[in-house]
Amino acid sequence: MRVAYETMVKEFARVLEKKGFTAQDAQDAAVIFAQNSLAGVYSHGLNRFPRVVSYLEKGEIDPNVRATCEMSSGVMERWDGHRGFGPLNAKRAMDRACEIAKEHGVGLVALGNNNHWMRGGTYGWLAADNGCIGICWSNTMPNMPAWGAKDRKIGNNPLIMAVPRSNGCHALIDCAVSQFSYGKIEDCRLRGVQLPVPGGYDTKGQLTTDPAEIEKTWRVLPMGYWKGSGLSIVLDLIATVLTNGNSVQKIGTFGDEVGLTQIMIAIDPSKFNTTEETDAIVDAIIADVKSSEPVNEQTNVMYPGEPELRNISENKEQGIPVIEEVWQSVLDM
Amino acid sequence: MRVAYETMVKEFARVLEKKGFTAQDAQDAAVIFAQNSLAGVYSHGLNRFPRVVSYLEKGEIDPNVRATCEMSSGVMERWDGHRGFGPLNAKRAMDRACEIAKEHGVGLVALGNNNHWMRGGTYGWLAADNGCIGICWSNTMPNMPAWGAKDRKIGNNPLIMAVPRSNGCHALIDCAVSQFSYGKIEDCRLRGVQLPVPGGYDTKGQLTTDPAEIEKTWRVLPMGYWKGSGLSIVLDLIATVLTNGNSVQKIGTFGDEVGLTQIMIAIDPSKFNTTEETDAIVDAIIADVKSSEPVNEQTNVMYPGEPELRNISENKEQGIPVIEEVWQSVLDM
C-alpha cells in the first residue's frame, strides 16, 4: 500500500494538533516525520510515529516545551532543549545556525538536554535547503563498545554533513559511527539474511556477519574498527563540552534515550561563491565520481544522498510505501 | 639510535634556514617535523624531511611564498596557499582560525592551493594548544575507489578533530577515511605480515588482508566500506566549495600531490565554560571509556590521542628513535 506524501503530512499534523501541539508546530513536526518516510527512512518516519504519540499521551514529551538559548557568544549559542520534542528543537537549532551563518559566515548552536531527533539527515538537509553547508551530530545512549572493550560505553553518535545544490539534489552523508544501525541488524535477522560485511562479535568474540549472533552479545562494530570508536568519543567530547550537557555516559544513567546532546553548524558558501559557482563545483565532483568504472554491470556508483533522492522521487510519484496496520492506526488516532 | 627532541628541532631548523627559510619560519617548520617524529608518526617527521629538502633544492617549494587571505566574510576567510610550504601555510591558517574563534566563538579558514600538510593531527593539536576545539581536513590526490567502483577517483582525505585539556593531554583523532594508509600497507608488506583487518581488494575482486595483493590492485578499502566513501566525497565537496580551489579530481591532473585544499575550523569553548569545567567534562568521559572491560588482559582501552601521548612521553624521556642513515643524512646537509 502507498500513501501520498501530502496525505501523510496532513494526517500526522491532525494527530499532533489533537495531542497538544500548536497548528504550526504540528505542521513542522508532521513534515519532518513524513519527509523521513519520503526519503525511504521508514524506521524514523511513519513506523516511529505511533511510539512518539504514545510518549505524548503518557506525558513523557510535553508538546509545549521549547528549547531556549542559555548563552551566546559571537556566532555560537548554547541552548537547553528542556527535554522537549526532539525534532522541533533540533529544527529550530539548525534554523538558527543558518540564520547566524547568513550574517557571519558560520553559525553554531550547541543544543543540550534534547530528545531524540529521529533522522539526523533531516537537519543537514534543512541547512542545505537554506543554501548552507550543514554539519551536525548527536550523541546517543551507550550502545557500542570502545575499540578493545567488551562492554558498551560509547555511542554510535550519527554524524551528518550536507552540501547544498540549487536544484535541491543536495549531497548528504548521514552516518552513525557504528558499521550498522540496530534497526539494520534486527531487520536482517528477521529476514534471515547475513549482514553484507561483519557488523559485530559473536559469543566466542569473533567478528561475524550473523545478525542473530550479534544480538546475543550486542558487541556491535564501530565503522572502520578503531576509527569509528575514536570518532565516537571525540564527537561526544565536543558536544558535551559545548553544551555542558549530557555525555553518552550520563545518558546511560537515565534508563531511556533522553536528554541528548546535539551540535548544529551551518556555513554559508554564498559569502564567497555565487550559486552558479557552488553548483558548478558540486556538479563537477559528482559527475567525476559517477564516471567511475563500476565493479560490475549491476552496480551504479552513487554520490552521498543519491539513494535518498531516488526514494524521494519514486515515493513522490507513486506514493510512500506503508505497512497497512501502522497507517491504519494513525488514521484511527 | 635515539635523538633528543631539541637536537632534532635544532638540526631541522639549521638545514631549513640554509635552504632559504627565514629564521622564524625555519624554527616553526622544524618544530612541526620534529613533533611528528616525537608523536611516533615517523613517516611524516624525520623520514619525510630529506624529501622535503630535495623539493626545496629543486625549487619545487619556494620557502618565501606565503598563503594570502583572498576573501573574508564574518568569521570565515578564504586563503590562497600559492603552493607554498604546506605545513607553514596550514599552521598559519589554523592559528588564524583560533584567533577568530577567540574573538567570535568560531573561526574558519578555507585554504586552497596549498601543498601537503604532512600530518593533519599537527593542526588539531595546534588548535587544542590554543585552548580551542579544532576540526580540520585536507583533500588528497585520487587514491581510493568510491564504493562500488574499481578505479580510484576519491581521496582518503584525512579528518581531524581535537579537544583541548589544560594539562596538554588533548584528545585527538586523526583519521584518513581509508581503512589503512598507503604507508601502513607498504610497511606490513615489507615486514611480511597481514593487515589486522581487510584493507582492500585482491586481483579477483575479493577483500583481503594481504598487503601484497592490495598493492597489485591499489583498490584500498574506505573505512566502514560505503561510509568512508561517502565521507570522502562530502569532505572534498565542502573543501572545494569553500576555497573554490582544487578538488580531488583536479589534483589528479597535476601529476604530483600538490595544490591541495584544506579546511581549518576552531571553536573556543572558553566562551561558555571555565577551563576547569571543560577539563572536568573531558576527564569524566575519558575516565568512563578507560573503565571499559577490555577484550583480554593484554588490551588497554585507550582514548583518541592516547597512543600519541604515550609516544611523546617515551620519546621525550628516551629520545626519538631514528633510522641512523636518515639522521646522518640530515646532519650532513
Count interface residues per chain for the largest interface.
A-B, 78 and 79 residues
- The radius of gyration of chain A is 20 Å
Instruction: Name the beta content range of chain A.
Output: 15-25%
How many strand segments of chain A?
Answer: 13
Instruction: Write down the overall geometry of chain A.
Output: globular
Q: What's the N-to-C terminus distance of chain A?
A: 19 Å
Number of discrete helical segments of chain A:
12
Tell me the structural class of chain A.
Answer: alpha+beta
Helix content of chain A: 40-55%
Low-confidence stretches of chain A: none
Oligomer: homodimer
The description of the largest β-sheet of chain A is: 7 strands, mixed
Mean of pLDDT of chain A: 96
Order of helices and strands of chain A: EHHHEEHEHEEEEEHEEHHHEHHEH
Kindly report the spatial arrangement of strands forming the biggest sheet of chain A.
2-3-4-12-5-8-9
What does this 3D model show about the protein?
Two copies of one chain form a homodimer. The first copy, chain A, is α+β, with helices and mostly antiparallel strands. Chain A contains twelve helices and 13 strands. Chain A has helices at residues 5-18, 23-38, 49-57, 86-104, 121-129, 182-191, 211-217, 226-243, 248-251, 275-290, 306-318, 324-331, and strands at 2-3, 68-73, 76-80, 106-114, 133-138, 144-145, 152-154, 159-163, 171-175, 200-201, 207-208, 260-267, 320-321. In chain A, strand 2 and strand 3 (76-80) form a beta hairpin. In chain A, helix 6 packs across helix 7 (211-217). Chain A is globular. The interface between A and B is large, with 78 and 79 residues.
